[in-house]
TrEMBL record:
<keyword id="KW-0238">DNA-binding</keyword>
<protein>
    <submittedName>
        <fullName>Helix-turn-helix transcriptional regulator</fullName>
    </submittedName>
</protein>
<dbReference type="InterPro" id="IPR050204">
    <property type="entry name" value="AraC_XylS_family_regulators"/>
</dbReference>
<dbReference type="InterPro" id="IPR018060">
    <property type="entry name" value="HTH_AraC"/>
</dbReference>
<keyword id="KW-0804">Transcription</keyword>
<feature type="region of interest" description="Disordered">
    <location>
        <begin position="1"/>
        <end position="22"/>
    </location>
</feature>
<feature type="domain" description="HTH araC/xylS-type">
    <location>
        <begin position="202"/>
        <end position="300"/>
    </location>
</feature>
<keyword id="KW-0805">Transcription regulation</keyword>
<dbReference type="Pfam" id="PF12833">
    <property type="entry name" value="HTH_18"/>
</dbReference>
<dbReference type="InterPro" id="IPR009057">
    <property type="entry name" value="Homeodomain-like_sf"/>
</dbReference>
Length: 302
């Protein structure tokens, strides 16, 4: 990973989904595109706390490869919610259809790759039955292949005028094929998620509660129900009216309300006991769920 971000040309406009105005210390490198996929660099060289929004776009999937030795980010939306520590070469993967919000307070540098759904559909066209891709979200995951393929693209990002389009195309195709193999698969396009059976619903909820303690993941729960992660998440929402993450938050809120009403624990202790990241996160979620702060709710419930 010898190419520095400073060697890359600065893009005149940030990539799609970056917002109308990016903070001065948040920078985007040259963007290379081919056949429904694109690659660019994104870095932050400040020390102040930075909020990174990611509105739902439905455009496809975003793969990030960390170029820096250490980077922490707190993700507060969707299945990736939590505090994640990235080392050099760690990846994250998310569906651009899902809303996303993150907070960082230290410099970072990522090589980012956006893959449209059309990009994967071109691969699916080789199948006998119509299919669509489903990829599981991950964050701060060590991967043995993707960082090396991302590194192979860095010289092209640093010197776009000298880029071999065929080389970039083949690397992007290789990365897309690997993502399908390692982090998901194809599911029949005509398959529509139905309701979870009572057994699967109860099993999923029990496993989601254990997920709070870090004992399982969404793909683990989906496999236990003999479903893809994408199918499970849609079926769960159809069954309960909530995404798995929303359901977990509702369980935490219910526990927190019980403690607020029936114990003398401080707000910070309630936040820790109910598996919120910290008291600030507890306050935000509680206000979103009830319309008032935990302190006000406790006084009214007394």
């Amino acid at each position: 990973m010898t190419t520095s971000f400073q060697d890359c040309a600065t893009a005149s406009h940030p990539p799609s989904g970056a917002g109308d105005r990016a903070p001065a210390a948040l920078r985007f490198g040259e963007r290379l595109q081919h056949g429904g996929a694109s690659v660019y660099r994104k870095s932050y060289d400040g020390a102040a706390r930075l909020q990174i929004p990611g509105p739902s776009s439905g455009a496809g999937f975003l793969l990030g490869v960390s170029m820096t030795p250490e980077h922490r980010r707190r993700i507060t939306r969707g299945e990736l919610a939590g505090l994640h520590l990235f080392s050099q070469g760690d990846i994250y993967l998310r569906d651009l259809e899902d809303p996303y919000a993150a907070e960082v307070d230290a410099p970072f540098d990522f090589t980012l790759l956006e893959f449209s759904r059309d990009f994967f559909e071109a691969m699916a066209d080789e199948r006998i039955e119509p299919a669509t891709v489903a990829l599981s979200p991950v964050a701060a995951r060590r991967d043995p292949v993707l960082p090396h393929l991302a590194c192979a693209l860095l010289p092209s990002l640093a010197r776009p005028a000298e880029t071999c389009a065929l080389f970039v195309e083949q690397i992007l195709v290789a990365m897309g094929a690997y993502l399908v193999h390692a982090y998901g698969g194809f599911v029949p396009a005509q398959t529509q998620p139905g309701l979870l059976s009572k057994v699967h619903e109860e099993r999923a909820k029990a496993m989601l509660l254990s997920k709070v303690r870090g004992e399982c993941s969404i793909p683990d729960i989906a496999r236990e129900c003999n479903m893809s992660a994408s199918y499970f998440m849609k079926a769960f929402k159809k069954t309960t009216g909530q995404t798995p993450h929303q359901w977990m938050l509702s369980q935490r809120l219910a526990r927190a309300q019980d403690y607020l009403r029936n114990s003398t624990l401080s707000l910070a202790e309630v936040a820790t006991t109910c598996d919120f990241y910290d008291q600030s996160h507890f306050n935000r979620v509680f206000i979103q769920g009830t319309g008032m702060s935990p302190g006000v709710w406790r006084r009214q419930a007394a």
